[in-house]
Each structure stands twice: as C-alpha cells, then as structure tokens.
TrEMBL record:
Stored Gene3D superfamilies: 3.40.50.970
Highest taxon of the lineage: Bacteria
Top EC class for this record: oxidoreductase
EC number(s) recorded for this UniProt protein: 1.2.4.1
Keywords: Oxidoreductase, Pyruvate, Thiamine pyrophosphate
Organism: Cellulomonas iranensis
Molecular function GO labels: pyruvate dehydrogenase (acetyl-transferring) activity
Cofactor(s) it depends on: thiamine diphosphate
Protein name: Pyruvate dehydrogenase E1 component alpha subunit
Pfam families: E1_dh (PF00676)
NCBIfam families per the UniProt record, alphabetical: PDH_E1_alph_x
Domain Dehydrogenase E1 component: 50-317
C-alpha cells in the first residue's frame, strides 16, 4: 500500500513501485508479493511470454493492415504487454473484464479470437464479440465511462451472492482497465465513490502509459496517479507495469481481495506507450527520441525473455515453435480481416438496445426511406449505401 500525500519528485516517481524482475530480468525478492507470484512455474511463465509475443505480433499486423487501408484506425498496446498479460493471467474464468480500447494483451490472455477485435477497428461491427463468451466486455472509447459500468456490474455480482462465499470456483471479481488520462475524468471519481461505499468487488486497473494522446502525465497530476484512490477510501498499489511477474502478483492479490468481500483496489501500473496513441497520431511532435530510447531499453517482453534465459527455461525449440505460431497468427489475421466483407446498411440499427426502442425504430425507418430514394422508377440503384 502507498502513503497519501505529494511525492517530492512528482507523478513519474518510482516511489513504492512493486517490482519482482529488474529491467535486466533478474528476480528480486519482495516481502509482500513473492507469495502472490509463487504459483508461476516455468510453464506458466512461458505461457505469459507466448501471450506477450503474440500480442505484439497482433499490434504489428493490425498497424500494417491500417496502413494498407484495411482498418479505419488502430490503437496499439505496444510496451504495455506486461501490464495486460500479467493482470490477465491473474483472472479466473468467472471474473469479468471491462476494457478500454487497447487491451489486446488482456484479450489474448483471455483466449479471445483476436480477429474479432479487428471487426471494430475495420468498422464492420459495433462491438465485434459476444462479451458473455469470455466475460470480456466490449471496448469502450468514451474515456473512463466503463469504470462506472464495471463498478455497477461488480455491485450486481455482489447482490447475486457471488462474493465472499469461500467457493473459489464461484466467487467473482470485476476488473476495469483505463489510462492515466482517464483518471482526470469525472466518471472515474464517481466509480471510486461507488466502489468504496459499496465495497464493490472491483479492481480499478490504471495503465499509466505516461500520455493521454499528447498530454504527458505531468500535465494531469502533481502526485502519482495511485494517490488519487486513498482519498476515496480505496487502497492503492503502484506496480512496475513492465514487469509481468509483478503485475500478475499485484492483480492476483487485488482480485482475491475483491472476490473474498474485501472491496475494491486501485492498481497503477507504471509503464510507457512505446507506439503512437493511434494510427492517426504522430508522437514525434510531443516527445523526444531520447525518451523513447530510454523506454525501449525497458521493453517488457525483453525483460521476461532475459529472465527465462537466465533460468534456462526458454529452450530454442520453444522459441522456434513460437516464431512459426506467430507467423501463422499473422497470416490468419491478414486473411480474416481482408475477408470480413461489408455489413448491410440497416445492420447499424441492430444490437443498439437489447429490446426495441422507438428512437432507433424511427431512425431505421428514415434510413430505409432515404436508401429507397436512390432507386429509380425501373428499380435500379442509383447511389446511396452499397
Ligand atoms: C470522454 C472522452 N473525452 C475525450 C476523448 C478523446 N480521447 C480519446 S483517447 C484520449 C486520451 C486517453 O488517455 P488515457 O486515459 O491515458 O489512455 P491511453 O490512450 O493513454 O491508453 C482522449 C482524450 C474521448 N474518447 N472520450
Ligand atoms: Mg495514457
């Protein structure tokens, strides 16, 4: 837990960051969190490594697809793989995830069919996947709003009697992912109020990637972002977000607290957005290449690779298999995206609400009439949506 009060060196301080792996991949002891990472054997570490490597491949392929005009927009998770995969691996199947828009690593850890994420970025679907399949809710682009959805959902889980029963297969928690910038949004404060007073089983997982588009964290806060939570009565922890062991351990503890009825936790995973905000952004306009280089040397995938190398747990045969799996994954992403086709015009009115809605019905009727205005008297389409 962190103390409240301003940090002498501002919001980017490494004060109180939980770390289990140094940037060189050396395992360091931690009195509180070693126990929470004790179940990570070599197989599980390799599974995390695999998810991180595939997530990065996903970013590379999707960015290339956007540049080829196959996707409208894409937001990379580059640099944030340890924060996402570590926390994702701490989840149990019955837990629920409310992501923002770059949680590809959590989706991968949750075994989503990854091409589904690209339906949204191609603009052929409002969502892309069924949230009930993996308890992985839809991406949310309205900054911070889903922290309220997650907190409300957690209050529902609590009212369904799925918290604190002691049944490990049943007790459930909710985790919501959002950014440093989102913490300046009113919705996140409201989520913290409701989470706190209701003792909701929710983990508020903030990936502080040091930017809200072009605005650095130093323009959003004078103290570490995690310091915002204790004022609401929500315990907070800061973790090295590029250390997959540490993000796993910290999230596992927070989820366990939530499932057992101990209430919410705020996690600040301190990391760095190595890529652009989205494919529409040019980070060279607001940050230096020296800073980018500094963080490239702290690459989260490289850190786990170095650790596994040191312990002799990354045999060449595993690496070769993973490389060909990643190639096949890339091919699968490219072919599937190119074959997604176009949605029918009226499909945009489907799934807006679970039940019929008068406004949506009126808009659909207007649209149909509008489309009909392009059909000439011989029944030929002369324009409109194709
Ligand atoms: C309510 C709202 N305001 C503004 C925006 C425009 N916007 C999109 S992303 C973004 C920055 C978010 O930064 P952060 O929360 O740190 O998340 P990151 O993109 O760094 O993961 C903003 C302001 C938005 N999508 N929603
Ligand atoms: Mg950010």
């Amino acid at each position: 837990m962190i103390p409240t009060g301003p940090a002498a060196d501002g919001p980017l301080t490494d004060d109180g960051l939980v770390q289990l792996l140094t940037p060189a991949g050396e395992r360091v002891e931690h009195p509180e969190y070693d126990a929470w990472a004790a179940d990570l054997d070599a197989d599980r570490l390799r599974a995390m490594y695999r998810d991180m490597v595939l997530t990065r491949r996903f970013d590379v392929e999707a960015t290339a697809l956007q540049r080829q005009g196959e996707l409208a927009l894409f937001a990379q998770s580059l640099g944030q793989e340890a924060a996402q995969v570590g926390s994702g691996h701490a989840l149990r199947p019955q837990d629920h995830v409310f992501p923002s828009y770059r949680e590809h690593g959590v989706a991968q850890a949750r075994s989503l069919e990854m091409t589904q994420l690209l339906r949204l970025f191609r603009g052929v679907d409002h969502g892309g996947w069924d949230p009930a399949e993996r308890n992985f809710h839809l991406f949310t682009l309205v900054i911070g709003s889903h922290t309220l959805h997650a907190t409300g959902y957690a209050m529902g889980v609590q009212r369904d009697g799925l918290v604190g029963t002691g049944d490990a297969e049943r007790d459930a928690a909710v985790v919501t992912y959002f950014g440093d910038g989102a913490t300046a949004q009113g919705d996140v404060s409201e989520a913290l109020v409701f989470a706190s007073v209701n003792r909701a089983p929710v983990v508020l997982f903030c990936q502080n990637n040091q930017f809200a588009i072009s605005e650095p964290t130093t323009r959003q806060a004078t103290v570490p972002i995690a310091h915002r939570a204790p004022g609401f009565g929500v315990p907070a922890v800061r973790v090295d977000g590029n250390d997959v062991l540490a993000t796993y351990a910290v999230t596992r503890q927070a989820l366990e607290r939530a499932r057992s009825g101990g209430g919410p936790t705020f996690v600040e995973a301190f990391t760095y957005r190595m890529g652009a905000h989205t494919t529409s952004d040019d980070p060279t306009r607001y940050r230096t290449s020296a800073q980018e280089e500094h963080w490239r040397r702290r690459d989260p995938i490289e850190r786990l690779r170095a650790h596994l190398d040191r312990t002799g747990e990354l045999p060449e045969v595993f690496q070769a298999q993973l490389a060909s799996e990643a190639d096949a994954f890339g091919e699968h992403l490219r072919t599937t995206v190119r074959g997604m086709g176009r949605p029918s015009g009226p499909s945009m009115f489907e799934h807006v609400y679970a039940t019929p809605h008068a406004v949506v019905d009126a808009e659909r009727a207007w649209f149909e009439q509008y489309e009909q205005s392009f059909v000439d008297h011989e029944g030929h389409q002369t324009g409109g949506h194709r």
